[in-house]
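Feature request disguised as a bug report, sorry. It would help if multi-protein outputs had a clear separator. Right now it looks like this:
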Amino acid sequence: MFLVPVSRRTQEWSRLFDDIDRFFGSPAPTSAASAASAAATVSPALDVTESPSAWTVKLDLPGVVKEDVKVAIDGNQVSVQAQPRQETERGEGERIVYRERTAGSYARRFTLPAEVDQSQSAARLDNGVLTLTLGKRSAAASAQLTVN
């Protein structure tokens, strides 16, 4: 048995991780899907980095091809959905004896601190990792009056 000492700091970290979905959001809800398919929906892990002009978000989507990925941006909310294709190819006389690898779907929705500029955004899928470069919408230039 492994015991973790509990301290005030441990409790703070625990609350932080419990609240992480408040910042990054919870998985995107599925449509009126059956309970079996809802259970097969996975919320992919993600990493977010920030630069002065954009956020870079990386999500793990193993087994997905770029044609099966849908990214929707609405203001500061980003939604990613993907459905990997199930392998159905079998040779002559072959039958499936045992299968653990299933093709569940992926869904994740998260909210960024400011609106996303879609014209300055891009998505790339490489080796099962979806990289979203989400441009920050520049604040409208505030008009200043010159006092004479």
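(second protein starts here, but nothing in the output says so)
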Amino acid sequence: MTITMSLEYLLLYLPLLVAVSCVVGATRHESKHLILEQTRKTAVWITSFMLVIYAVLQLISWSV
């Protein structure tokens, strides 16, 4: 069994990722350059975390 996700859900992920990352960056820094750097780091971290969760769920679904 493979876990699938429609493209519409993935397209909803992008604006949410940008919004959350920008808020985190803006609450930690005041300089525009630092905000954008923090936004990039947060976006990478959140995406990596979500991919790890997806991989774990995929492995669990294969063993069932």
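Even a blank line would do. Unrelated, but nice: The chain has one domain: 7-63.
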